[in-house]
Amino acid sequence: MSKVMNMCVALAAGALASCSSGGSSGGGGGGFPVQNGSLSIDLTSAGVTITQQPSRLFLSATAVYDDPGDMLTVSLTVRNDFSRLLFNLKGITQMVNEGTQTGTMLPGGGLPYTYYGPEGLDRTAMRTENLVFTGITGAVDPIEIDLTFEDAAMLFGGNFGGDFLAIDTSLSGEVFETGIIGTNSLAANVRQAVVAADGEFVYTGDKENPNIGVIDTRTYTIATGPDLSGTASGSIGGITLSANGSRIYGVVNVGTHAYGAPDGSGGVVGSTTVDVVAVDESSLIEVGRLNLFTMDAGGRFGGRIELSPDGSRLAVIVGTIDGSANELWLINTASFSLVDTDAGTAGVQPVTLSAPGAGTFAQQGCWSGNDRFLVGFNDHRFGGNMAIDIDVVNTSNFAVTQLTPTGAGEAAGVMTARNGEVYYPTRDGTSPFSIFTLSNSNERQPDPAFSGGTEACGIVFNKSGSRYYVANYNDLAVFETTGDVRVDTDNDGGNGVTNILLPEQIRAHFLTMSRN
Fold first, then answer.
1. Which of 97, 112, 135, 411 has its CA 20 to 30 A from that of 506?
2. What is the pLDDT of residue 24?
3. Would the pTM count as exceeding 0.85?
4. Which domain holds residue 147?
C-alpha cells in the first residue's frame, strides 16, 4: 500500500516554525547564485523534512512511497524568493542515499535534473514538480536527497516558420517552441526582438504586420500589441529598448511590407512613410513619433534599429531592393531628433552606405563602441550570389570604410561586436562565420561545424562574455570566447564535438538572451 507523507520544515536555528510559510527573503540584484537544498524523508513516520533551505528559494514537499513497487515520488514545490524573475530554473539531484532518480539527465550521462521551467518563475511564484526515485527498498530510512538549484540564461530566437524558440544555454539540449504572431510569409517573419528590462517580456516586430508582438516569458503566451502604423497595414522593420528600459523604439514601414512592397493584407495606395515610434514600455502607449522619410520610387524601407552602448543614439538601417540608396539614419535619443550627417546639404541627411549592386540591400548592423556602427548586406534574398563587404561607419565624422570577409558571404546574419572585434555570421559555403579585429582588420574564421546548411544566421554572447552561440538553420554551435574553442554540448567525448540540435529550421533575424 502507499503511504502519503506530510510536509514539514526543520526547526533549525533561525528557521520559521511553520510547515507552510517562511523562507529567506529575496536578495538584491545581480546574478542568481547556485542554491543548495536538502530533504529528509522518513519512510517509517511518513514525514518530509527540509533540512536545508536555499538562501533565495523556499522549498516545501510531500511524498508518496510505493512500498511494493520500491518507488518514491517527491512533489517538491519551489517558491521564488529572489528579487527578480528566474528564467530557466533547474533542480539538480546531487545525491540520494538509496535508489535512482528517473527522468532527464545532464549531458554526457550526468546528474538527473528537474525543470522548474522553462517558463520564467516570477517573484514569489511557486511551482511544483515530481522527483521520482526507483529502488527504494526501505532498507535505508530516512531517504536523504541533496539538491542544487541553478538558473541558466535562456536564448531566444525565431525559426523559419515564424515560431518563437527558447534554448537552454546550460547545454541540456532543451529547446522549446511556441507559435508566434500571425504572418502571411513563412520566411523569417520576425525582424528583431528585445528583452524587457525586468526580463518578463520579449518584444518582437513582424515584417508583415505593424504591431509589436508581446511574449510573456513567465508563460510563453504571445499577444499582439499596439498597431503602430495608424492604417492597420504595414510592418515593423526593427525594435529596441532605451537604455533605462522605459521606452520601446520601433521602425515602422507604414502601409508596406518590410521589403518595400505591398504587404500580404493588400498594402495601401499612395505615399507611405518610414517612422521611428517611441512606445512606453509599461503601458505600450505611443509617446513619440519621428518621420524619417516618405516612400519614393526607389522603395526604401526601414530595417534594423540599434541603440548605442551609452544610450545616446539610435542607428536605423534603411535599404532598397535596387541597391541604390542604402542608408544609415542616426537619432539623438535625448531630443528624439534626427542627426544631420551632411551639414553642407539642405535638410537632414543620413549616412550614404556603399551600393554593392542591384538587389543588394543593407540588412544587419551593430555598434562597436559609441563611435562606430557596422552594416552587413544581403545579396541572396533576391537571387544574388556576390560576396559583400561590411560597411564601417565612423559616427563622429560619418566616414565609411569597408571590411572584406574571406569567402563568398552573400547575406549578413545577426551581428555583434565586443572588445574591438565584430562577430559576423553570413551565408557562405566554406566560411559562414568571421571575426574581425577592427584595429587592424585581421580576420579569423572559427568553424561552427554545422550539421546542415552553410548559413550562419546569428550570434549572441552570454552575459559574462565567456561564451557565444552561433545559429544555423539546423543547429547551434557554442564557443568559449577565449581561443574560440567549440564546446561539446553533450559532453560524452565519444562522438566528437556536437552542437545543440534545433527542432526545425531557425531563421534568426533575431537572437537575444534572457536578462540573467
1. 112
2. 30
3. yes
4. 2-151
